[in-house]
Amino acid sequence: MATIYPKTYYNDSIINTEDANLSVASSAILYGLSVYTVFHVTVSEGKYYAFRLKDHYRRLQNSSRIIGIDTFAVEWSFKKFQKIMNELLVANASKKDVFVRVSFHIDALLPGTRSRGLPAVLSAFVYDAEPIVPQDGARLKTSVWRRTPDYSIPSRAKVNGAYVNSVLARQDAIDSGYDDCIFLDNLGHVAELSAANIFLVRDGVLLTPGANIDILEGINRRTVLELAEKLDIPTAERSIDLTELYIADEVFVCGTSAFLTPVIAIDNRTISTGSITNKLRKAYQDALLKPSSPYVTKL
Ligand code: PMP
Q1: pLDDT above 90 (res 1)
Q2: Pocket test for ligand 1, best of 54, 132, 197 (most atoms within 8 A of CB)
Q3: Which of 216, 222, 253, 280 maximizes ligand 1 atoms within 8 Å of its Cβ, making it the mutation to test the pocket?
């Protein structure tokens, strides 16, 4: 398990991580009513460079809107958000690249099953940027569990409680000897992994499930599509059948905690890696790690 750094932002101040605790009677604990995001920070010559910070802030705001947590937009400007993230990183004096997990929790005590007009608190902690899938190639298993549809628990919103769906599917994959799952949507189309988006290459075209499939609209997914455009790789966002993955020329996954990782096997079928994945991986690593990247914000 990744090391968590000693200082955490919680309830308007930076405190010791072990003291940042939510009540067992809070909605966050009782119903999983927290929204969150995780972003990557590159540390270079004592300076911190956060990847697509504004996009993470916006998604946190959108997740809050979907769930009915109105206070985020009122209490948190991007300027304040950025300032706190900088203070947190300075307090932890991290020398290695890290992930920052920011959550907005409803901490009302026993309000029942509702979300609007309740007090909420922001937490942010830092941990080592360790990938969740093997970087030399991931082995995936199609899950027996389906991705929660927009009409049930929206996958577009990054809500803690919704991650029971991911836990069920990823544990099933691990139990079966794989690294992660492939979720299908309720109609059987390919959706995503437990915490990453998926891409495939067929006849030179980069394909990924569209945002109308039940996926989290990943910030790294968007980055890969933008980088592909810059590299003149044709792309399409459309529904994907499972068997298209089996016969794909290349498959890879991407996400904050998965980085950009080739897929080497799906449901016991070998998948080859190839030049489009390699090109995009190189461009992605530059976008993520270089202080001169247009995608990073210096904190
Ligand atoms: N799908 C799910 C379900 C996720 O949890 C994540 C991780 N946030 C992703 C995709 C990738 O999103 P991002 O690129 O914004 O990290």
Answers
A1: no
A2: 197
A3: 216
Nearest CA to ligand 1 atom 5: 195
- For ligand 1, atom 13, name the residue with the nearest CA: 218
DSSP assignment letter at 81: H
Of 224, 218, 230, whose CA–CA distance to 194 is shortest?
Answer: 218
Q: How confident is the model at residue 131 (pLDDT cuts 50, 70, 90)?
A: very high
pLDDT for the residue numbered 120: 97
Distance 92 CA to ligand 1 centre (A): 25
* d(C-alpha 156, C-alpha 116), whole Å: 19
pLDDT digits (tens, 9 = 90+) for 140-180: 999 999 999 999 999 999 999 999 999 999 999 999 999 99
pLDDT in tens, 97-118: 999 999 999 999 999 999 999 9
- What pLDDT shows up at residue 253? 98
Conformation bin of residue 230: beta by default, left when phi > 0, alpha when psi is -120 to 50: alpha
What is the average per-residue pLDDT within 274-288?
98
- Alpha-carbon distances of 52 from 83, 90, 142, rounded to whole Å: 15, 19, 30
Q: How far is the CA of 204 from the centre of ligand 1 (A)?
A: 25
Q: Considering only CA atoms, which of 99, 103, 79, 104 is closest in space to residue 89? A: 99
For 60, the token pair is: 């946190």
How far does residue 195's CA lie from ligand 1's centre (Å)? 5
Give dist(CA 172, CA 183) in Å, integer: 12
**Predicted local confidence at residue 2, as pLDDT:** 86
H-run or E-run covering 100: strand 98-106
* Secondary-structure percent of the chain, ordered helix, strand, coil, rounded to 5: 30, 30, 40
Average pLDDT over residues 210-237: 97
């489009």: which residue's tokens?
Answer: 276
Tell me how far the alpha carbon of residue 103 lies from the centroid of ligand 1, in angstroms. Answer: 14
